[in-house]
Amino acid sequence: MVGLLKPRPSVRGGNSLSVLALGSINMDLVVKVPRLPSVGETLIGHEFFSAFGGKGANQAVAVAKLGVPVFFVGQVGDDDFGQTLTLALKASGVNISGLRTHRELHSGVASIVVSETGENTIACAAGANGAVDEVEVEFVRSHLPETQVLLLELGIPFPVVLAVAQAAHQAGVTVILDPAPAPDNLPDSFYPLIDILTPNEVEASHLVGFPVEDRPSAEQAAQILQDKGVQNVVITLGEQGALWHSSQGTVWYNSYPVTAIDTVAAGDAFNGALAAGIASQKPLEEALHWGMVAGALSVTKNGAQPSLPDRKTFFSALESWPLATP
Fold first, then answer.
1. Three-state DSSP class for residue 173
2. Is 28 labeled as catalytic in the residue annotation?
3. Which of 69, 109, 124, 273 has the most Cβ atoms closer than 10 angstroms to its Cβ?
């Protein structure tokens, strides 16, 4: 199937344009347990670690690790976590000129419980992420001329997400939205601004109002979302693979045979690599291959940003794992 994206020639003599990621940045506090606890149940975990996270920051790092220029735009608190998160982004090669420090709010924190099978539950305290405002909107607007792809998620105030999506759409920049944390609904006027919508099965279920758990329900959900105006819908279903749906039809892709240890950053790895592929002038189908490979690699390691594949590991796997349909 031919990729459906707005053409945008490079302004850097053939080199990839920048990716810009706007979103949340958190310190992840992770407990590994035998299984996910039931409501009201206390489980004794067997491992604890902290890791750099936040969907927006994770996606930016995923791009940077593949060697594509990327800006991260967001806010941290004026605390130890904020300083550590800032240094980690910089060390990963992310441009942090759009990262602000809020003097009164704490940095975002995510409490994550991970089972032995890699499933997880996450509770976040937004902190400074909830203060992202017009300053960040203006930063994004000022950098759109040098941006190929805008990565968005919903861990910051929605009016900010809407404003930058409108600006990017008008500028001809490819807009990728990871609709997480999963909303119960989004305004109908928002969907036509999105070039690629990338929900997992849980997020897709929230958006369409019925369970998305297999191929028939995913195809139904994708059609509903495409009818709302999204150019491309990509629904990931873990071991069942992924669906790509557009006005030209639906394609299913197989997952890769990996052993899942921690799935917390699978979606972020997918989106970051997808954006990196597009910014590197790859056709959409090839960029989706990048996303599938990066997502699969990420679940084989613990933590969010620590699990994101580096350039050498990624391109080795990319050559070994072809994009396969059922």
1. coil
2. no
3. 273
pTM (whole model) above 0.85? yes
> How many Cβ atoms from other residues are within 10 Å of residue 47's Cβ?
10
Q: Find the catalytic residue in 184, 214, 268, 310.
A: 268
- Sign of torsion over alpha carbons 4, 5, 10, 14: negative
Q: Which CATH number fits domain 18-25+54-107+129-320: 3.40.50.300, 3.30.300.20, 3.40.1190.20, 3.30.70.20?
A: 3.40.1190.20
Q: Which two tokens stand for residue 213?
A: 């758990």
Domain residues of the chain, as ranges? 18-25+54-107+129-320
Write the pLDDT tens digit of every residue in 185-242. Answer: 899 999 999 999 999 999 999 999 999 999 999 999 999 999 999 999 999 998 889 9
One-character DSSP codes across 23-59: S--EEEEEEE-SSPPPTT-----SEEEEEEE-HHHHH
